[in-house]
């Protein structure tokens, strides 16, 4: 009975089905533990957490330079910036938009720097209906979060915000355009 | 009247246990406040469910955010913690044939938690703290929000200290023989984890409070997250411990269950204490500043031994029910289940909670907490999908089941409308399951949590998540059913406490058929061996293997989904 004190002698090894289940469960936990390092070595997706301290003003200056150097278009009043293939791309989360719109090439690796100028935001990359892309990273003020990223599909992808960042969070969106 | 003994206690007319009257009062007070907070949380839940169901879209964004803050705090923090305090008083005195150690600590616990809860709710309701329960800096609430949280936590610390004192007194005065009961052991595990948790919370919230009154710089966003989850995650482990302890308790009360091997059960509780409480980085798996190696280690260290602990309880709890039923002569692979007291809301809550927690919450939790898989899940609606199957369908439902026994045994009042009470656990469990499945599917399509509008009506750049609409309807419909189920529980319980028939001087009216009840009472009065001949838990073995199969399928399907997204490191 679980509600009464137990006399001495309860400390004994498990038997039968209970012992078998313990062994199976332990084995499964082993599988769970091994999968992460395995994917780390063989898989193509991981969150390395690479980041550098950065003052919001300083990050903003880098983004403005990136926009000046690579601006190819303007959409909805927001500059569209083509990142140098294999180079650095910059993205700001601020209340309540993702700035600027990025233009990338499929199959090319970029260093995507993401930071916030104010609150915490959630970088959530979403394909158009049916494309099935769904990738999420935290964006914090003071942290230059570097994602080494290779688009493997072409098209237009939305960035939405999935970290609550105050009144206006629900309309915080952005765009990444990937060309073949 | 129960027999009054000289040391301010009474003897329970149903179980024969000694009930310390001061403890009884504190159990009552904490439970009543818990139910009030549950009511606030449930009323907000209606609003949330009907907002996320896009067809209805009840609340505007501001109100939706405020309701989310109200709901998260009153449900996860206030309802659950006040209930846990009640459980600690019960476990530390009644189950140990003991009296309450310190009035000062006890009243301090209740008073501070009540004041803290009041301050936080005042702050949120008046729009001074639209920051969600996580209050991630540099979002800022007014100062009383943080101070209220701190006072609440100090109250909880006093409550756990009083519980440790109760254990000490019981041991010193030799009020029991042998080792403490399993349920008390589970409560002890919860209390130990609570101490670590509250200390983390203090380190996160005291500087934040000082910042809110202008005495300090804003805390660093990354450090705040790390410390906050040092509070936020282990407190879920407290809930798991408390829930499992309640499972064992209800198992005994409803079918006379007896664990096969208490050493196994106790070891599992020990594993929780040792191996979970620092594993809080599964909330930070896609954060900047923490290396991949560190995140992998933190989520899985020592071979996922905390997951192992839950898998152990997932076997030992149903096995203890099964062998008790077999002992009564209900054989067959699942005959023991067929003959179970399904009309007893205590048993129904226990079993439904066990299934939702195991098959739903457990499987999704481990998967979402896998370092790389988190990339396709973080802050999507999959997260609330997961935790409504742990803290709502699991812990809260188990606590509701407990109430169906606490009210008759401690308040000594009988429930009326018993037919409704018998089906209440099923209504709530069904609703939560539908809602959580809807959330999980919508989240897989990228729908964010804490977001009122997947049509992005006011956004400059249109986004399109409309493929998830049918799943959002499931969230709304399931949520409505669940909230109705919870409201039924509240109304029945409030009615019983204030207007129910008194059962003083006699045993509580059983929830079960007389023949079921008699078999259980007979079993409880005999000394039987749960590992005796002919009592093999084969039904449980089948169920747990089924669980493992479901687990493996879901887990590897998620790796597959991850393999399809862009390359990133
Ligand atoms: C009674 C039925 C319930 C319904 C219909 C319900 C519904 C919901 C909904 C729709 C959300 C919002 C999800 C989002 O938009 O991000 C939510 C959030 C949440 N719920 Fe519930 N819930 C219920 C019960 C519970 C219970 C019993 C608990 C805990 C004990 C709980 C804990 C939470 C928490 C912690 C959040 C997250 C709040 C946040 O993001 O800050 N819920 N719930
Ligand atoms: Cu946001
Ligand atoms: Cu956690």
Descriptive report:
- Chain A has 180 residues and is α+β, with helices and mostly antiparallel strands.
- Chain A has one domain (50-179): Sandwich (Immunoglobulin-like), CATH 2.60.40.420.
- Chain A contains two helices and twelve strands, in the order H-E-H-E-E-E-E-E-E-E-E-E-E-E.
- Chain A has a seven-stranded mixed beta sheet with strand order 2-3-6-12-11-8-9. Chain A has a five-stranded mixed beta sheet with strand order 1-10-7-4-5, covered by helices on one side.
- Chain A is elongated.
- The relative contact order of chain A is 0.16.
- Chain B has 569 residues and is mainly α.
- Chain B has a single domain, classed as Cytochrome c oxidase-like, subunit I domain (Cytochrome C Oxidase, Chain A, Up-down Bundle).
- Chain B contains 15 helices and four strands.
- Chain B has helices at residues 21-52, 61-92, 103-125, 143-172, 182-212, 221-255, 262-275, 292-327, 335-338, 345-368, 382-411, 418-444, 469-499, 514-525, 538-563; strands at residues 4-5, 9-11, 18-20, 567-568.
- Chain B has a three-stranded antiparallel beta sheet.
- In chain B, helix 2 crosses helix 5 (182-212), helix 8 packs antiparallel against helix 15 and helix 11 (382-411) runs antiparallel to helix 12 (418-444).
- The radius of gyration of chain B is 23 Å and the shape is globular.
- The model of chain B has no long low-confidence stretch (mean pLDDT 94).
- Chains A and B meet through helix 1, strand 8, strand 9, strand 10 and strand 11 of A and helix 2, helix 6, helix 7, helix 8 and helix 15 of B.
- One copper (II) ion binds next to loops of chain A.
């Amino acid at each position: 009975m679980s509600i009464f004190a137990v006399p001495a002698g309860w400390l004994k090894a498990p038997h039968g089905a209970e012992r078998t289940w313990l062994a199976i469960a332990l084995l499964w936990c082993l599988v769970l533990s091994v999968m992460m390092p395995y994917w780390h070595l063989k898989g193509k997706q991981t969150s390395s957490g690479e980041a550098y301290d950065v003052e919001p003003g300083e990050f903003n200056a880098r983004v403005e330079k990136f926009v000046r150097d690579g601006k190819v278009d303007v959409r909805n009043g927001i500059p569209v910036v083509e990142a140098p293939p294999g180079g650095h791309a910059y993205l700001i989360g601020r209340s309540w938009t993702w700035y600027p719109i990025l233009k990338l090439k499929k199959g090319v690796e970029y260093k995507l720097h993401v930071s916030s100028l104010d609150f915490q935001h959630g970088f959530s990359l979403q394909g158009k209906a049916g494309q099935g892309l769904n990738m999420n990273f935290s964006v914090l003020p003071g942290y230059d979060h570097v994602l080494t990223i290779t688009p493997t599909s072409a098209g237009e992808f939305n960035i939405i915000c999935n970290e609550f960042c105050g009144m206006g969070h629900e309309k915080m969106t952005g765009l990444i355009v990937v060309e073949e | 009247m129960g027999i009054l003994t000289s040391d301010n206690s009474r003897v329970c007319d149903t179980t024969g246990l000694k009930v310390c009257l001061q403890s009884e009062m504190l159990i009552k007070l904490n439970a009543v406040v818990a139910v009030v907070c549950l009511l606030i949380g449930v009323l907000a839940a209606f609003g949330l469910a009907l907002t996320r169901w896009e067809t209805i879209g009840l609340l505007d964004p501001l109100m939706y955010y405020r309701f989310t803050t109200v709901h998260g705090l009153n449900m996860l923090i206030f309802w659950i913690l006040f209930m846990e305090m009640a459980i600690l008083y019960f476990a530390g005195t009644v189950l140990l044939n003991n009296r309450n150690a310190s009035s000062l600590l006890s009243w301090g616990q209740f008073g501070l938690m009540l004041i803290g809860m009041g301050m936080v709710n005042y702050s949120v309701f008046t729009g001074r703290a639209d920051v969600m329960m996580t209050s991630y800096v540099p979002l800022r609430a007014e100062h009383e929000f943080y101070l209220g949280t701190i006072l609440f936590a100090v109250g909880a610390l006093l409550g756990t200290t009083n519980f440790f004192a109760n254990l000490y007194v019981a041991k010193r005065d030799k009020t029991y023989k042998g080792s403490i009961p399993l349920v008390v052991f589970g409560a002890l595990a919860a209390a130990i984890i609570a101490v670590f948790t509250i200390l983390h919370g203090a380190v996160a919230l005291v500087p934040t409070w000082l910042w809110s009154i202008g005495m300090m710089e804003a805390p660093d966003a990354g450090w705040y997250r790390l410390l906050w989850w040092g509070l936020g995650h282990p407190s879920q482990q407290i809930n798991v411990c408390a829930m499992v302890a309640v499972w064992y308790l209800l198992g005994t009360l409803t079918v006379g269950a007896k664990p096969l091997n208490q050493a196994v059960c106790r070891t599992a509780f020990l594993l929780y204490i040792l191996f979970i409480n620092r594993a809080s980085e599964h909330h930070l798996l896609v954060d900047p500043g923490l290396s991949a190696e560190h995140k992998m280690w933190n989520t899985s260290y020592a071979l996922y031994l905390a997951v192992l602990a839950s898998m152990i309880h997932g076997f030992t709890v149903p096995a203890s029910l099964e062998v008790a039923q077999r002992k009564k002569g209900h054989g067959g692979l699942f005959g023991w289940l067929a003959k179970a007291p399904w009309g007893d809301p205590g048993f129904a809550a226990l079993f439904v909670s066990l299934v939702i927690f195991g098959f739903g919450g457990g499987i999704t939790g481990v998967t979402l907490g896998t370092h790389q898989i988190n990339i396709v899940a973080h802050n999507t609606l999959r997260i609330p999908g997961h935790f409504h199957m742990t803290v709502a369908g699991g812990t809260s439902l188990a606590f509701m089941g407990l109430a169906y026994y606490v009210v008759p045994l401690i308040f000594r009042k009988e429930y009326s409308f018993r037919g409704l009470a018998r089906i209440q656990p099923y209504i709530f469990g069904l609703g939560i399951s539908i809602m959580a499945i809807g959330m999980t599917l919508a989240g897989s399509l990228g729908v964010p949590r804490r977001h009122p509008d997947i049509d992005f009506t006011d956004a400059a750049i249109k986004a399109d998540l409309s493929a998830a609409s049918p799943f959002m309807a499931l969230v709304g419909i399931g949520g409505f059913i669940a909230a109705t189920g919870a409201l039924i529980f509240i109304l029945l319980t409030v009615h019983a406490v204030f207007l129910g028939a008194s059962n003083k001087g006699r045993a509580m009216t059983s929830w079960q058929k007389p023949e079921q009840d008699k078999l259980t009472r007979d079993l409880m009065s005999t000394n039987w061996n749960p590992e005796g001949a002919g009592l093999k838990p084969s039904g449980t073995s089948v169920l747990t293997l089924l669980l493992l199969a479901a687990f493996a399928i879901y887990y590897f399907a998620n790796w597959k989904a991850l393999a399809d997204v862009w390359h990133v490191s």
